[in-house]
Design brief:
Mean pLDDT: 79
Strand content: 25-35%
Low-confidence stretches: 160-166, 574-598
Strand order of the largest sheet: 17-16-15-14-13-18-19
CATH class of the largest domain: Alpha Beta
Number of domains: 4
Amino acid sequence: MDASRLAAKTTRRYDLEGMPDEEFERMCARLVRIEFPLAVRPASTGDGGADVRLPGADDTTERSWQAKHFPKRIHWDKCKESLERCRRVWDPRHYTFCFPRRLSEKEQKTFDRHFRNSEVDIEVDHWNAEELEARLDGSELGQGVAHTFFEDPALDKERMARAFRAQGPLDTTGDALERMLPVGDFLRREDAYFFYPATTHQTGGPAPPPTPGTVMSVAHIEGSTTSRVDAVPRDEEALERYGPEITLRTTADEAGERAAELLRPVFERGEPVRLQHGEGSGLDVSFTNVPPALEHLVAEHEGGGYVELGATEPTPPPPPPPWQARLHVETDRGQADLDVRLEPGGQAPPDWDGVLEGSVGGMDVRALFRRRADRGQIRFDFTYRFASPASLKERVKALHAFAVLHGEGRVVITDHGSTGRPEMNVATAPRELPRELSALSAFIEDLLSISDWAGVVVDPPEQVEPATIRAVASVARMIREGGQLVRWDYLEPVVTPEGIAQLQEGGRLLLEQPIGVKIEEQTVDLGFTRMVVDEYKIAAVVEERGGSKVRLEPPDTASAEIFQTLHRVRQPTASAPPGSPRKGARKRKRKGRKGRRR
């Protein structure tokens, strides 16, 4: 072999086919997160057809991955079932299978026939063994995943090379920093679940506090130098698999009694204490679960050393993920459906772990979460506020739902987002609805009728005078009924001589006038009203400059009641009305009676 030539370095081969199914799934999930840090694992992957998903905007799913650990024959029916479930639950735009081996030419054709035909309208592809191995070797984070899931002699050689690099001159601070580089290089790539910040300081001297998020630290003291490594989880899965678990036992002798007495302030008052453990100390310490990179260090220290215990600030639980909730309310007051997005809110009340808050149509919805032992609890609170930027339609819908919530029945809450929460069924107890809310609901509904009729946005005023409420109610009722029944006592149009002759001959008289409503500072144009007078009599004629004022009166009581219609747009009439009145009619509305719909 020519000494000047170096052998080509090939991709490492990993026993993907020999992995347990669950480990293969976990490894694929770690590789996905390297390239897509925002990817998440659903709370339950058993029935959603996706082991990992990449959320998109507005609760969509950009991409999903499904691990299929088929070392031998690929079960295409199971692959198709997974894709169908995922499309039903998550509706991704891109779906990727992960296989532990390369597909044969025949298998690739089968894959294309099942998943790349005209009936599949999303992108479907796969990561095979070659693709997975390239990701395991393609980055430092990928090598950390490889180190976590595989024993590889080549990786051990790299560790040894880093250890040799740490040997060297140490005459200046620069030399010390140089010596620390290979240590950092090692810790950065040690495993896929934790970061491992390291510090060195003088024993007994000032020391940096643990890195934020640290769940466990291991320190090594040699003479006047202390070295410490912190373990910081990369995500929640790290704690699920490697959350530290420690067992303290006192021995059944005098030393054990002393150790128990020293431990008492920790458990009774939360006072810190530093205890020696090991032979003759009366205290035995064992770790049943630790972050992977600390396993060997902990094993070395289990025989003896020191353990520090004390009160710490409780780590607040992570906020619950957003919830795209759909509420179906069904009580003795009626039924209602409402969609509301709940986001992590402010400080949770005492005795609760987390809170999600959202608002729809002026109704505020708050979900409180807490866990007790092995059970979880959720409580929903509903309140309504007058000031809201929501549209009138949203407010009408929300007010109706809020009123229905005050009855006796149930609320069914389903998750229409990406978190896959199970359906909840919450009972409601009968409560008295505040009278002001009933009045507010009627007022908002009247404003909506006016807004829809006029085709303009009506903004509810912050403060409403009683006169405005009455005017809005009257106009809204007129809109819903198409007009109103009015009673007229007399009309006094000013007409020309020709108009007088037409009035004397009799016939239909058409009267129109514009109409609007003022809602505090906003004036809304509603169109015009039209009143047709079929029967009348001339009571008097008074000559005036430019014409004659004619007083018209109803011939009888029945003729005095006329239904006045409401119109958005003025339309030309077939013939000019008799008398061509130039002034509007004076009339008096009749209250307490309902007019016919035109």
